[in-house]
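Example complex used in Figure S2.
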Amino acid sequence: MNTGQPATARMLAWAGLACAGLFAHLAQASAPNAELTENSDADVDPSQFSAVPAPLPPTPWGLRWSIGPEWQNGPRLATGMGLRTALDLRHEFALGPGWRAVLSDRLEVTRGSGGEHQSTNALRELYLTHAWDSQWFFDAGRVNLRSGVGLGYNPTDWLRGNLLATPANQNPSSARENRFGVFMLRAQHVSDNASMHWAYAPRLTSETATTAHTWGLNLARGNDAHALQWRYAPRLSDTVSLDVLALATAGRTAEVGANATAVLGSSLMAHAEMALARRARWTGQGLSPSKHLTTRAALGLSWTHATGASWSLEYQYAGDALSGAAWNHWRQHEDPVVRRALGAYRSDRARTQDALLNANWFARLQWNDIHHDGRFDLGAFARINPYDRSQLWQVNGAWHVGPTLSLRLVASAVHGAANTEYGGRALRRYLWLGCETHL
Amino acid sequence: MHRHKLQRRVCLGWLGWICLPALSQPLPDAQTILQASDGIRNPPGSFSVQLQLTEYRQKKLANSNVLMVYARPADAGGEYSNLVRFVAPARDAGKLMLRNGLDLWFYDPSNQASVRISPQQRLLGQASNGDVMTTQLARDYDATLAGTQALRDGEGQIRNTHLLHLKARRADLPYPRIEYWVEQGSHQPVRARYFTAEGRLLKTAWFRAVQQVLGQQRPTQTVIVDGLDPGWVTVMQMSNHQLRDIPAAWLQRDYLPRWKAEP
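Predicted assembly (702 residues):
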């Protein structure tokens, strides 16, 4: 490996930390003075302040255009500067009383350091929705149906597998947004105290695609088997939320799951997401022939500081994935056959967005409106493999220059040796600085 | 001499007869004052109102937002269940915040994700300023009359007010203690200071620009001063008040992706 890469990674890590520190310092500078107490409003003359009327903006079209240079580095990638631009559209067309059409699409064009161009268009959603009355709703078409309260891993988000449209961003919330929907018929009933839905996804293709066509409908990425999903979300109390789900897929074992959140205090929240199914387990020798009842889960806590910074920590568990011992045994193997099998396992789990190992940690910081002036947002997350200590982190900062224009910085890096989970990734360091406009 | 004594006693008796009823007249009931003020601050039943929020930092215009608030009286307690829709700026347009007591959800239409947030996160956001307008204090707070004060109001005018001390009846209310000034006679709210349980000032609100709204003289502007950072001032302009039916189903988290802006 190039010995300069760890040094660059460290520099990037320090640069990220410096950026976070700078944000924190700027926020601290404008943070409230804790010594100001009861009489802090005594000198404020309210008559000095007036409402400044602003005309209501036209209803936005739901169009977001972003453009900016990117830099990437990795052992199997051409290092250098490129350009990435993307057009995101999500719009609802009113067709008549109770009828709407929803379109969600992303067009992305990149220009590599060598001048090569690549363009992809992902039709994420296109469906017709009908409100029968104020409680019954019906959808038909390609719908991106998301489930789960986990922050970095969603075991009950069953319709996520093989649906990633653009793998550019490692951010889990972006991954949930930038994926193909599944063609389905869905009925939902929302009453005063509960909600229930049924979604049926028909089998539209016999093939199971592993790669996305850059401009096609990509039907095979989600509709390769008949599937029926059911979800029930009762309203329990102000402090606890719960929903239970089940999925039946033709030719596969049924899955059940649950999501729960709880308010533990004014600034402390807990979440739990769990899925149960009979699955074959991965071992150091490969996939076991027998199936066992296995659990996948994400358990987390979120704490909000008085400044508005929200810190989250999540433990992720996948009972069917490799154990730490099996992983350490497998990744240090020199046999090319074993290494190829490991490579296939890795790419398969990445494609289906399943956990590589049976345990993982996810930490997140979200700090919106740092100065309370609507200008600065800061987000950061890290994934940590507890067995090989490799890490992946990403920092995302936004400066909202005006009502429709923002500057954004995305920096990410991985740490760890080439035979670790994150250190073995093709993309080791990534930087994007661009502007976004909302129309 | 006797005659003077007699005259003095007659005068004292007459004064006593005149003054006694005044001295024995009961003080105005704090809870009644609070209830009357609630009726002025909140339209009856469910309603919607547009909020234009103008933020000042160190007296300089810093930010401007427009929200629509849809409020429905909670089945229990005096708080309203709120659905807040972000109208402007454009990058926030369409986002929703749902509040049923401590049950708080934030919905972003770009990724159609409903994310649960903590009460602390709500208190920091501008949407929390809607709470100041949509709370029936008399149902959740015990009021005591702490005195009367001549107070300069949000427009610089002197008003004679009752000062009420409010103590929350439940532990889960966002403001455990409130100092509340209500104009004598009209029961118009003039000023309120909201505190934590530990006595830390969270925000001060000045109610002003009284106008005829939905059949009642009501304040249409609120100036909110942050409790810890007095340089952070928000002027909240209310307009387009409408009494409307807000079904309970609208205030379900699963309804958020279905919710469509009402005219």
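Helices of chain B lie at 2-24, 30-41, 119-124, 129-133, 137-140. Confidence is low (pLDDT under 50) at residues 18-24 of chain B.
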